[in-house]
Task: inverse folding
């Protein structure tokens, strides 16, 4: 600073003294020195201009000025300065004393401080030892804890307790590994921890692989047990429906006996019976989740289970499908029961979409297998057997939430084929029954036979138990066919029940009508039209058809009971089988066939009229020979017909026979073989008619035909022949022309036939008219009648 001030002064002095010499300005130099500024620029400037002497001169002048100023100042303050110097001397004395005392105190402090420093060093050393020991203890504790955890982890691994072992390893790694002071131990653990985790992963995955093999073997048993539970539940349901039907029937019959039905809640089967262990799955899934491998494990699980499912869906090439279908479907059921439990309990191991994908692929494959196998089956019982197990499979898996609709749709597609096979079986059985029947009325000696063949099918005409032995109006064909039809109904209901259609009553009715119409009715019609059929057989077949028509009510009720339809609906017009009307119409065909056979036999007897003498001299005493054969035949045949035919059918049949006999008599007189006849021959015919009319009257009253509504006497069936004989034997045959008389007595006669027959009577030679004037008058009357009728014609 002084240097700077001096530089300033020099600069100012030089400038003042020799401004003309181009030196430093004295004022600037003085200002710079006073302000303590750096004189370096001024010095450098002096040297640059080559005049450092000038600067020195200025500086000396500045010093001189300052010395003069100091001298002036000292002269001004001399006394004060002297006084200050004296005080300074006193201060120096005190400072020396203080210095001496400080020296003594310092010596004493140094003596004391040395021992304290020595103790301090010892204390610091102890603290360091303590710190080292604490650190050592802490390190030993960490190492001991880590070693204990390692031992614990080894014990867990030894006992296959993988989850606590894994958690122990996580504790070691998370809480202690970075704190372990022993580098060797730390490096060892860093190397061994991944090895242990890999070991745990391998072990749990090996256990899971073993479980996959084991559960596939158990799936069949699981499926069989679960399907068995579904079957038991179905049986209980059917028993409950049976009790309900029994109660309904007793209610309808007015029985006062109380029927109590225990309403049972629909309780699902106890799943605890389905014992299978999923612990390896849970453990493997959780361990892999803890290892951060959950996605890989889930993919591994799904892939392997999908492969197992594909293998299970392959049908056996060694056994037939009929033999192995239960094993096949049980395996599938067991697979999806296991998957359902895994889905519900394994915490996301498999997703709902993955389970649905498995089920969709399975149902698609099963449907194709079923369609293929069903198409090959040609036996209804085989198809029903497989269908029943498939429906149980559907019922089982529906309890676990699987959509079994497509499975049941396949069964519905097969119902037409099944019923065609069933119809073929029934057709074969019915044809065998019809071929082996003797067509004789059944003889039942015991009550159980009556129950088995009559009451079992509601074929009884009265509720009173008959006396035994009992002769039924039908042959063995009827109960045998009823058993076949009943079996058909039960098989049809078995196939259609538990399918996709809850209301299958109309379907069963449709197929039942098809059986009764296309099979049973056609077989009966074919039999009744057989040219070699005998009269007794035709009569028995007609009677059988009547009973079978009545049995249709039982068949309809049986369908309603099995389908759970209230009897009031079965008894309604909707419940009536179409086959009932068809069988009723077929009875007409059978009755006509019976009539044809009787007419054919009667024609054989009427052929005996060729031996009649149409111009006898006297009337026959005992009638004509043909009539005896006809009466014997009718008296033999009508009791059997009366016993087995319904009263209306019997009435129609007898009238048809008598009407045919009347036609035969008329046709005989019209035939070319009878060229002439006399009154004696007509009197013989009149005697024949009296016998026939007596037979007809007796049958009318003794067979109960007179009790029929709008009943007409059987004699009316002989009316045409009777009116013709009466006309010929009449003394006034010309009264035939009187409309009133004709309507009253000859309303059935055809005038054309009267002309042809009367001409034969008229054309007789005169020698035959030996009866006197009455015969001559009758002949004239007939001649006149013929002429008048010709004129009218």
Result:
């Amino acid at each position: 600073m002084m240097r700077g001030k001096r530089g300033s002064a020099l600069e100012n002095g030089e400038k003042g003294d020799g401004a003309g010499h181009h030196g430093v300005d004295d004022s600037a130099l003085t200002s710079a020195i006073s302000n303590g500024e750096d004189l370096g620029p001024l010095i450098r400037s002096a040297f640059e201009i080559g005049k450092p002497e000038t600067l020195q001169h200025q500086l000396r002048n500045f010093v001189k000025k300052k010395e003069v100023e100091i001298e002036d100042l000292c002269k001004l303050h001399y006394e004060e300065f002297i006084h200050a110097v004296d005080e300074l001397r006193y201060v120096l004395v005190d400072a020396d004393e203080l210095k001496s005392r400080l020296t003594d105190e310092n010596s004493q402090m140094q003596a004391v401080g040395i021992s304290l420093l020595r103790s301090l060093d010892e204390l610091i050393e102890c603290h360091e030892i303590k710190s080292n020991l604490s650190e050592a203890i802490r390190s030993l504790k960490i190492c001991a804890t880590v070693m204990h955890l390692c031992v614990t982890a080894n014990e867990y691994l030894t006992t296959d307790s993988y989850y606590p072992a894994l958690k122990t390893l996580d504790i070691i790694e998370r809480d202690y590994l970075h704190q372990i002071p022993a580098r060797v131990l730390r490096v060892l653990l860093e190397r061994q921890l991944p090895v242990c985790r890999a070991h745990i992963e391998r072990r749990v995955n090996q256990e899971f692989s073993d479980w996959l093999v084991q559960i596939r073997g158990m799936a069949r048993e699981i499926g069989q047990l679960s399907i068995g539970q579904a079957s038991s539940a179905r049986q209980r349901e059917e028993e409950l429906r049976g009790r309900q039907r029994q109660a309904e029937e007793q209610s309808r019959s007015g029985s006062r006996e109380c029927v109590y039905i225990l309403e049972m809640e629909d309780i699902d089967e106890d799943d605890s019976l389905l014992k299978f262990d999923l612990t390896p799955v849970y453990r493997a899934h959780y361990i892999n989740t803890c290892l951060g491998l959950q996605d890989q494990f889930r993919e591994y699980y799904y892939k392997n289970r999908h492969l197992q499912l594909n293998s299970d869906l392959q049908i056996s090439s060694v056994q037939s499908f009929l033999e192995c279908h239960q094993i096949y479907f049980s395996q599938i059921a067991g697979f999806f029961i296991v998957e359902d439990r895994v889905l519900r309990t394994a915490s996301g191991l498999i997703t709902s979409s993955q389970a649905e994908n498995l089920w969709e692929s399975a149902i698609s494959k099963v449907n194709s297998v079923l369609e293929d196998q069903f198409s090959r089956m040609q036996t209804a019982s085989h198809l029903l057997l497989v269908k029943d197990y498939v429906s149980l499979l559907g019922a089982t898996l529906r309890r676990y939430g699987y959509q079994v609709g497509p499975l049941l749709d396949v069964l519905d597609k097969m119902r037409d084929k099944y019923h065609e096979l069933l119809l073929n079986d029934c057709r074969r059985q019915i044809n065998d029954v019809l071929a082996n029947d003797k067509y004789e009325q059944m003889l039942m000696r015991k009550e159980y036979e009556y129950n088995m063949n009559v009451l079992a099918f509601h074929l009884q005409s009265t509720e009173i138990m008959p006396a035994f032995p009992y002769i039924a109006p039908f042959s063995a064909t009827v109960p045998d066919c009823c058993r076949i039809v009943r079996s058909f109904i039960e098989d049809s209901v078995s196939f259609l029940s538990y399918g996709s259609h809850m209301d299958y009553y109309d379907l069963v009715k449709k197929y039942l009508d098809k059986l009764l119409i296309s099979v049973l009715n056609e077989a009966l019609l074919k039999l009744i039209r057989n040219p070699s059929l005998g009269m007794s057989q035709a009569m028995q077949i007609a009677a059988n058809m009547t009973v079978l028509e009545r049995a249709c009510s039982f068949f309809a009720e049986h369908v309603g009971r099995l389908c759970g339809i209230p009897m009031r609906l079965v008894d309604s017009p909707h419940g009536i089988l179409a086959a009932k009307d068809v069988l009723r119409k077929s009875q007409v065909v059978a009755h006509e066939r019976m009539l044809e056979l009787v007419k054919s036999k009667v024609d054989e007897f009427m052929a005996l009229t060729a031996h009649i003498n149409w111009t006898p001299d006297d009337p026959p005493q005992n009638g004509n020979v043909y009539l005896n054969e006809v009466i014997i035949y009718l008296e033999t045949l009508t009791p059997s017909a009366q016993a087995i035919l319904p009263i209306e059918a019997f009435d129609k049949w007898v009238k048809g026979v008598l009407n045919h006999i009347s036609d035969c008599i008329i046709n005989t007189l019209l035939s070319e073989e009878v060229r002439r006849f006399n009154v004696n021959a007509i009197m013989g015919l009149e005697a024949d008619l009296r016998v026939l009319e007596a037979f007809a009257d007796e049958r009318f009253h003794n067979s109960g035909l007179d009790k029929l509504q709008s009943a007409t006497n059987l004699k009316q069936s002989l009316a045409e022949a009777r009116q013709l004989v009466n006309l010929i034997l009449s003394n006034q045959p010309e009264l035939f022309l009187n409309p009133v008389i004709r309507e009253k007595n000859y309303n059935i006669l055809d005038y054309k036939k009267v002309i042809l027959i009367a001409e034969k009577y008229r054309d007789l030679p005169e020698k035959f008219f030996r009866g006197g004037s009455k015969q001559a008058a009758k002949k004239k009357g007939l001649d006149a009648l013929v002429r008048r009728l010709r004129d009218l014609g």
Observations:
- The chain has a mean pLDDT of 82.
